[in-house]
Amino acid sequence: MDRIPILKMGRYLLVTIQVDMHDQLAMQLQEDLTARISRDSAAGVLIDISSLDVVDSFIGRMLANIAAMARVLDADTVVTGMRPAVAITLVELGLALEGVHTALNVERGMTLLHEKVAARGG
Amino acid sequence: MTEARPSRIPDLVARRGGDLLSGWLAQQRAAISAHAALISDAELEDQSKSFLDAFRAGLASGDLQDIDRAEWADARNFLRDVSRSRALQGFRPSETASFIFSLKQPLFDLLRKELAKDPVNLAEETWRVSTILDRLGLYTTEAYQAMREEIIVRQQQELLELSTPVVQLWERILALPLVGTLDSARTQVVMETLLERIVETGSEVAIIDITGVPTVDTLVAQHLLKTIAATRLMGADCIISGIRPQIAQTIVHLGVDLGAVVTKATLADAFAVALERTRAKTPGTPLAAR
Fold first, then answer.
1. Is A103 on the interface with B (CB under 8 A)?
2. Interface check B52 vs A, CB under 8 A
3. Which ipTM did the prediction report?
4. Which of A13, A18, B120, B241 would be a feasible disulfide site paired with B270, CB 3.0-4.6 Å?
């Protein structure tokens, strides 16, 4: 079965979503990611969704959940590369992803992650 | 109508077309004399001639009741074109409809001369002419109205496009000066253009200036908050500037929570904050130096 690969870069985990997200895949990602954060004691997670052009409320909530879970496991989450249409959809669905940090692209997302982790004294 | 006698109108119009045209033209010139500048004599004559031809073709069907028939298609299409061009030229609806209605008088005159000795038939034929011309006249008005509505829709669209400029003030800083009332349709356009431009320019800060927004109600405030939330999801920050004192009062009275949003009095203040923020991250270079 499909899995979304999780890459380790130093103290950060990198996830790029390049396929259409379906619910099963999202659940699997949530499980894999929490396991990896705990195993590698990662300080931050970067999720790039620049190739994602359709979201529903489930995926939206899943992103928020992953961020919340990572937070509990002592890691910051940055979501990068969200497309305008996706952002509008999420807002219309009432999912403003309050607890999630966002950045325009992966490069800036990494910078932001460094800052956040440094601010926590990590 | 249950009369058995075939109408003599088609034959009459075919035979006396020339007289009819000149009589009609005289009527029309009298009716639109105030707007003589809008349409030239030659054009009027041309239109009248073309319509008479189409009218004759329609009459040849023998049906003087139902203008939806295929035989009347030419007349209908021609009238639609005339109505459209007149709507664009600035004619009023009544003047446009009078194009058809002014045909009544000359046609009645012809009938009267032709059927002077047969009053019963005359009344019948007059009624027929009246009916068909009324229908054609109403059709003209409808076409005119449709054209007007088309124009209004197009203008709304143009206004919408004109009213949402997103300008780049500096590297990674966008400004969105809003002028006029924000409704749902406009917010949608505003949001889309802003987000697209953020991606295009890779901007980190967007300043929404609402100096030109006359009133802010709960709906407008909600639209603003939505735009700000969407911008944040894209990874950029929003600053609102130009909130006038009255609007600040309204916002608080309405209980709208702008707590999480950075607000500045003027666009200049907001720009200063935006510069600071983008400089803090990387040493800024002005656009020209890139």
1. yes
2. no
3. 0.82
4. B241
